[in-house]
Amino acid sequence: MTNSTHRDDCRLCGSKELDLVLPILPSAIGDDFIPAHLLNEKQDTYSLDTYLCLGCGHLQNIDIVNPDILFRNYTYKSSVSLGLVDYFKQYANEVVSQLHLPTDSLVVELGSNDGSLLKAFKEKGLRVVGVDPARNIAAAATTAGIPTVPEFFTLQVAENISTHHGKANLICANNVFAHADNIADIVKGIRHLLTDDGVFVFEVSYVPDIIDNMVFDTIYHEHVSHHAIIPLENFFNALDMTLFDAKKVKSKGGSIRGFAQPRSTGQRAKSKDLLAMIVEEERRGILQPKIYRDFFESIEKRKKATLNYVKEALAQGKKVAGFGASTTTTTLLYHFELQDKLSFIVDDNPIKQGLYSPGAHIPVLPSSALQTEKPDLVVILAWMYADVMINKSQAYLEAGGEFLRPLPEVRVVNQNGMRELK
Ligand SMILES: [Zn+2]
């Protein structure tokens, strides 16, 4: 397989009527921060053009980077923070009590990573099986007592699991459900593996929240589907699955936790929350291009104001840096055309320090570099953490430093206070 492929039909309904509503500029693979000894290897950029299907209303990327490049060596993504362990315990408690799962239930997780969530289910007495294509992480999870299949989840993998472990009462997928190009095969596998009254629970970022919270930078190469309820429900129905509940959750700038069951055998009634979300999606017109074109226009306004300010600073001989080294900041950096304008990026994650940004190879330094390198302006690429960053950087501001937060509105903060750029 080549490094990327381009499909010409909708991932959910097969329609070829695809409208390019968010022409986000190409970027390198968002999380491919590299060490110094790899700097002479060129890192390619790939399309992030985002299309709306005029057949079913599904928002998606159709230029697909080879998943072996994206997911097989997920080395830097395995570390689970302490906060997440608590989140997983809470998640397991909520789901087990909401769905009244018997104690000998089988729970299967797709994209199970190091097994942290399954561990929380196991501690509640349930049987667990993980599936994760990152072979090194899957092997480590298995050794640690969470049996993990080192593959991408497919119908065939589902058949193997049901042969060896029986049917699953619960299948979970957090975020991976938006990652796969061949989502139909995944849902066929889920349908096969679930018991008649089993439940599939998944978290995905939610299109209306992407728009409302301006988080266009959650669009990156791993993340090829951007879900809303209406297109997803039509897709599920065609594969004998149906949604019965959805809740908003805060992760990734706005997501939903969706609950689906076999359509022909599931007994759970559709929740009021789910029905209300469908009504709201219709009211807002999320199946039509207009809302996306308006969204893109507002992104472009902020890009222009940010870029003008940065160019002006550079023209005056000022030193400009960035804050935040992550997948989302790579999308932002490239789309706002800042990749050749920053001297360095600061980030307090020690895993990223000493590495170089994907493609553009901007060095990543600890935030103490604000004192030692004294940049005149810092663009807050990880803008959702802007308040935290500004609050802990008072010494930098008092020494004459300046921050620019590019989204949701463009703001400049220095020792004279805050002002908005239009
Ligand atoms: Zn479609």
Structural class per helix/strand content? alpha/beta
Helix content: 25-40%
* Gap between N and C termini: 45 Å
* Count of β-strands: 20
Query: In CATH, what is the class of the largest domain?
Result: Alpha Beta
CATH superfamily of the largest domain: Vaccinia Virus protein VP39
- For the record, the CATH architecture of the largest domain stands as 3-Layer(aba) Sandwich
Strand order of the biggest β-sheet = 8-7-6-9-10-13-12
Please explain how this structure is put together.
By secondary structure, the chain is an alpha/beta fold. The protein has 2 domains: 75-288, Rossmann fold; 303-420, NAD(P)-binding Rossmann-like Domain (Rossmann fold, 3-Layer(aba) Sandwich), CATH 3.40.50.720. It contains 14 helices and 20 strands. The strands form 4 sheets. It has a 7-stranded mixed β-sheet with strand order 8-7-6-9-10-13-12, sandwiched between helices. Helix 2 crosses helix 3 (116-123). It starts with a strand and ends with a strand. Mean pLDDT is 93; it is low at 75-79. Zinc ion binds at residues 10, 12-13, 15, 53, 55-56, 58.
